[in-house]
Design a protein that fits this description.
The protein is mainly α. It has helices spanning 21-35, 40-57, 62-69, 72-86, 103-129, 132-143, 153-183, 193-224, 243-265, and strands at 92-96, 99-102. The chain is 68% helix and 3% strand. A two-stranded antiparallel sheet has the order 1-2. α2 runs antiparallel to α9 (243-265) and α7 crosses α8 (193-224).
């Protein structure tokens, strides 16, 4: 589990950990929306500094954030190849035979890479500083106004929290199955295309069986504890906003407004 960061909660005593989950979710949504405005490198730099300050306050190590970004490197490499083949505008950076790499292809890939980097930093910071139970309560409270139009707020919040909770477990189970298959002589890295497909199938089938078994065990445990979807439930912990929570949301809103302003002037 040490190499898994997605959906993993890191228990620490920091100002970000002590904040209300609703404030962190709203602030994350504001910043995620701000990322999609073309505010240029200045705008992305402002967001990066703001998110970095939050990560420092949360006492999260840079290596922890970097491990969350590593799975994206392959996708970014693939994206650069696609852009290099499709985008033919801008200045020619270099030419090899009949192939030419244009500056707009590189810039487009860099923009997407920076956006992904910021989104991963924000979402990793949220899941690392918020307990799964607090995440459920926060999402449920934010969705509560939609119950007037028959939106099942509690059920949606429960599904999201369960999904976040079991992502690390499924990744760990995948690694365990891969090691077990390799010990039996299955080569997941070398071989022909047909052999690789068969090797992947030998990995997917037991993973699905394990996932369904975990889901069944969880459902039985919830039924044994009297959980009934749709029923009115009481809470042991009541969420309450404080000054630092409003400050976080206000800061995120200022970033969003700033990005909209910068995008209009560019």
């Amino acid at each position: 589990m040490g190499n898994i960061t997605l959906g993993r909660y890191i228990p620490m005593d920091s100002p970000i950990h002590r904040m209300d989950p609703r404030a962190k979710i709203i602030a994350m949504l504001f910043v995620l929306i701000a990322i999609f405005f073309r505010a240029g490198w200045i705008g992305y730099g402002v967001i990066f500094v703001a998110v970095s300050i939050v990560i420092i306050l949360a006492k999260l190590k840079p290596s922890f954030i970097w491990r969350a970004m590593k799975p994206m490197l392959f996708m970014l490499t693939f994206l650069l190849i696609i852009n290099a083949l499709v985008i033919k505008t801008g200045n020619v950076l270099f030419t090899i035979g009949s192939f030419s790499l244009y500056s707009d292809a590189v810039l487009s890939t860099l923009y997407i890479a920076v956006r992904l980097l910021l989104m991963i930093m924000i979402t990793t910071c949220l899941t690392a500083t918020t307990k799964p139970l607090d995440m459920t309560l926060g999402i449920e409270d934010l969705l509560k106004p939609f119950t007037k139009i028959k939106v099942p707020a509690h059920e949606i919040a429960m599904l999201i929290s369960i999904a976040l909770r079991f992502i690390p477990d499924l990744i760990e189970e995948t690694q365990r199955i891969m090691k077990a298959q390799e010990s039996r002589g299955v080569d997941l890295k070398e071989g022909k295309l047909k052999e690789k497909i068969m090797a992947i199938l030998s990995l997917i089938v037991p993973l699905f069986v394990s996932a369904f078994q975990r889901a069944e065990d969880l459902a039985n445990a919830m039924e044994a504890r009297g959980y009934a979807p749709g029923e009115k439930r009481t809470r042991y912990r009541i969420l309450k906003m404080h000054g630092r929570d409003y400050l976080l949301m206000f800061g995120a809103l200022c970033i969003l407004i700033g990005m909209i302003g910068i995008a209009k002037f560019l």
